[in-house]
Amino acid sequence: MAGARACSLLLSPTFEVIFVREPSPLPVFGKLGAKASVAVVASPVASAGIAARLRDLLATHGGMALKLSVIAWTILVLGTVFFMLQG
To answer: Are 53 and 47 in contact (CB under 8 A)?
Structure first.
């Protein structure tokens, strides 16, 4: 009987998901009010290697790199179609 139950569970899996929403915190004023956030300063780590330099380059010029790559890809596709139609 246990084997039949295991087989039926494998053939028809059911998932029961219960979503529980936590209540939003109530605003508190006075002595127990919101605490000042702790300032966290992230210092950049000196990175070595070409991958790290490329990552930094893309972080600063990522938008321009994306635009240039889309333009180059478009020209490549149009050039390929042109030469295929020519001969």
So the answer is: yes
Tokens standing for residue 54: 């490329």
- What lies within 8 Å, CB to CB, of 35 at 6+ separation is none
**DSSP assigned state of 69:** H
Eight-state DSSP code of residue 49: S
pLDDT per residue as tens digits for the range 32-84 = 555 566 676 666 666 578 988 888 888 898 899 899 999 999 999 999 999 99
Q: How far apart are CA 57 and CA 47, in angstroms?
A: 13
Instruction: Tell whether the torsion through CA atoms of 65, 66, 67 and 71 is positive or negative.
Output: positive
Residues recorded for the chain: 87
Amino acid at 17: V
> What are the DSSP E strand ranges found in 1-87?
none
Are the C-beta atoms of residues 59 and 52 closer than 8 Å to each other? no
